[in-house]
Structure formats: C-alpha cells, structure tokens
Design goal:
This protein has eight helices and five strands; from the N terminus they run H-H-H-H-H-E-E-H-E-H-E-E-H. The chain is an alpha+beta fold and 309 residues long. It has two domains: 93 residues; 178 residues, 2-Layer Sandwich (Beta-Lactamase). The chain is elongated and about 120 Å long. 21% of the residues are buried.
Length: 309
C-alpha cells in the first residue's frame, strides 16, 4: 500500500467521522491544558503536578495544543493538495476524453465523405469502366483538402475566439530540391512564404522534413529564420512529418500555424502528436491514392488505363 493510500485510510478511519471531528480531535488538542487547569484550581493543596509547578505545566500543555494544531493544519493541507490533484487528474481525463471524441468525430466525417461517393457511384445508371469508377470514387485531392480543413478546425476548437489557425501541406520536389505547398486551409489564405525557401534545416518545415521529427516554434516573431520567409506576424507553429514506410522517406509535412504566441509549446509536444498521428494516417493514404491517380491519368492520356493494363 502506498503512502497516499495509507494516509487516505487513516483519514477516513480516524479524522473524517463526526465523533472524531467534534470530540476526539478537540479533546486531544485541549484536553491536557484543561485537565491541568482543573487540577490546580481544584484545591489549594495542588501546587504541583508530577513535581512541576503550574507555569511549566501550563506551558507544556499550551505547547502540546500548538503542536496538535500545527499537525491538524498540515494534515488538512495535505488532504487539500491531494483533493486538488485528484480534481486536476479528473479534469485531465475529461479533457482527453473530449479530445478523443472530437478526433473520432472528425475522422468519421472525413471517411463519410468518401463513403458517400461510393453510394453515388453505385447508383449511376450509365455503365462505368473500372477506370472511371476509380477516378470517380478516388478523389484524393478533395479528401486531402477535407483532412486539412478538419485538422484546422480541430486545433481551432481549443483556441481563443479571435485566434486564427492556418494549416498547409507540403511535399518534397525532387526536381527543384525543396519542399512545395500542395494544399492549405483556409483556401483564401495561401502560404505567404517565398518559393524555394524550404530546402534545409533553417526553416521549421525543412528541419522537420530532414530530421523526420516534429518541430515546434513557440514565437515566430522572434525566430530569425521564420522572418526570412516573409511572414513576420506574431504567433507560433509546428511542423509534423508524415513518414512513408514503403518509400522509406518523409512523404509529407503538415504545418499548423497560429497567430497566438506560445499557442503551441515544446512542453505540449505529446498533445500535438496524438491527433496528428491520426490525421497523418489519413493524409498518407490519400497521398498514395493521389500518386496512383496521377499515374493512371498519365497512362489514360497515352491510350492505356486500368481496363487495358
């Protein structure tokens, strides 16, 4: 049994019952002083107690009462701290539960959008080739935009009312040897960074790509490298890499930017990684489908296709 459990058992057994709070504890604290006073006032012959005079006896009795009061205060303080910790733990569990439920809700909506296309395609009266079915149902560009939008909404939910969240998606361009933007949300706020800036570890996104690790910038206004990108507004951001095991490389980078300083903190890394892992799985799937769709479209334009391949 841990020390905390032993204390809780002692408190419930000896400190919490009504008879302890109203009789036992006050009696232990004030009993010695009351008995000493009664002894000396009972008779003029009682001039000593155990060989000690009234001043010393009453001093010791008062000291005992002081020590008992200090002990009771310490126990109450310890109990209050533990109760506060239990409340904080409960609140944390509730927050994490609500976060998980919101995350599940976002994923269900994302998956539901594609499921609707399955239903719509199945009800088409005109015969469709496998090629047409694939291109009709598999619209990864739309799915990627949908995932980016829900990523933005997810982080905006816990933000301040006037907070602005932006999310962008990047991939590595082998020909140009730097990261390029392929999607962003909101649609009317495209990334303001200069083209070709994301080629090394001097940028948050570039560092995330080259190190395959989440990189968090708590104050973008005071980040020299961030200022070079042409975006000098206050805020914070993080870049999250999405690694493709089949390609053995980072396939995508997700950037989440807030206009609030320290909205994203290094100390809150775990809270950022958990939802991003869920969104990353969906983005990686859609990105693979996007690559397949591009290849299918190229084959189709050259006279080939799934039905001919």
């Amino acid at each position: 049994m841990s020390l905390q459990d032993r204390f809780r058992s002692f408190r419930d057994k000896w400190l919490t019952p009504w008879w302890a709070r109203f009789f036992l504890i006050p009696g232990i604290e004030g009993g010695p002083a009351a008995l000493a006073g009664l002894w000396f006032s009972w008779s003029a012959l009682h001039t000593t107690l155990f060989g000690y005079g009234p001043p010393l006896v009453l001093f010791v009795a008062g000291g005992w009462q002081f020590l008992c009061g200090a002990a009771r205060s310490s126990i109450n303080e310890y109990a209050a701290v533990n109760i506060g910790r239990m409340i904080d733990e409960k609140d944390t569990i509730v927050r994490e539960k609500n976060t998980l439920l919101r995350l599940i809700g976002r994923v269900r909506i994302i998956v539901g959008v594609k499921s609707d296309r399955f239903h719509q395609t199945a009800n088409v009266q005109t015969p469709l080739s496998p090629h047409d079915v694939f291109l009709t149902i598999t619209q990864p560009e739309l799915q990627i935009k949908e995932i980016i939008r829900h990523t933005c909404d997810f982080f905006a939910h816990d933000g301040e009312p006037d907070e602005n969240i932006r999310v962008s998606l990047m991939e590595w361009d082998d020909a140009r040897r730097h990261l390029v933007f392929i999607a962003w949300y909101p649609d009317h706020e495209p990334p303001r960074a200069l083209p070709g800036a994301f080629r090394d570890t001097t940028t948050v996104a570039g560092k995330s790509y080259l190190t395959n690790d989440i990189v968090i910038c708590e104050d973008t206004a005071n980040d020299v490298n961030y200022a070079k990108l042409g975006d000098r507004g206050d805020g914070s951001m993080f870049s999250y890499p999405i690694y493709d095991d089949h390609m053995n490389r980072v396939a995508l980078i997700v950037n989440v930017v807030s206009d609030k300083i320290r909205r994203f903190r290094s100390s809150g890394r775990d809270a950022l990684e958990l939802p991003m892992q869920v969104f990353a799985d969906r983005l990686l799937l859609e990105n693979r489908l996007r690559k397949i769709k591009l290849r299918v479209s190229e084959d189709s334009s050259q006279g080939g296709g799934l039905e001919n391949g």
